[in-house]
User: What shape does this take?
Amino acid sequence: MKAGTRWALHDVWDGLRGQPARLGLSCLAIGVGIAALTILLAVLNGLEARSRAIVQELGVNVFAILPPRDGHRQTGPVLTQERVAALRANLPTCRFAAVFQDSVFIPALNRQVQVIATEPDLAAVRGWELRSGRFIDPADAPARVAVISAVLADSRQWRPGQVFVLDETPYDIIGIVDAGGAVADTDMPDAGRMGGQEAVFLPLDTPAYWFTHAGALPLHAVFVRTPDGEDLDRYVYRTRQLLASFDGEALTYGFLTPDQLLQRIRRLRNTLRFTVGSIAFLCLMLGGTTLMSLMVANVRDRLPEIGLRRALGASKQEVASLFVVEAALVSCVAATVASAGTNAVLWLARGRFPAPLAIGWPTLLVPLLVAVGLGMLFSYWPARIAAGISPAEALRNY
Assistant: This one.
């Protein structure tokens, strides 16, 4: 390191060390803005990852037919297996999977889990992978067999061939499936029908001993996988027409597509950009303004020093660089502490945070770069003031 640079850094450090109150206030003002920016980046990156997971899980060529609901109560036409059979006959190139879902208390787990009665094509329609065993087969009904989600199986070390007791009725476990959870974790009203991390899948045609109501199980959703490469919206429109021809009430059905799921994520992301982004911007501007005002006061306090430097031959650029480096150093220290602390808090609270988080190098480096740029930007005016002071004017302040 050149001697001039070493002495310049030494002078910057002496200036900061001699004004701890100003240094602390500047760091606090910038740190608040950097913390808000770090939270914003972590949530936006988390929502972006959630969007990719939703598209991957539901599938770009999969949509769901949902009966109309008013809160938890189903209204309007009822989805029946007869309607699904009619749709199959009219859309032979599509694959269908009807599901019924209920929450049932499992004594062995001492909690409630999703019990989903479904057709054999559900895993293929949703693109789920089997970890072991097999999924439900058309020949299984009315046998009491069950497929367990991977998360639920791991919690109790269940494997194919073991017996699972559901409401005092034994079921043979025939497979373990990775059922996903990105769609089930969204705040869509019918997201619980999508699958989820902890679920038990049973044949739809097996008598539902665990269901308290008599009669056939009402369907909560019908998943439809369209041929690859074809327009999904065209099949949604065709399905609406077919349902209208069956009972004249197709407009009351709900249709859940990947775009609809992503629109909700996008709305949340745009809201956060506007709200948290505005807060972060205002905090950063406040921090930059505070830093600039403190540096202007610093220039006035160091007038004799500036005059002496100029009298000894220091150029305007050298004097200005002292304040630019000082501002960049203060911003860098404040950003490092604030960003590291915020990332640590977010990592510890990631399971209880109300929004998805993605913590990584972007949430560490981007705030640091923003803070350095902010410090250099707001140090321009104080540095220019310092560089414009003549030696004679400065030395008169001795």
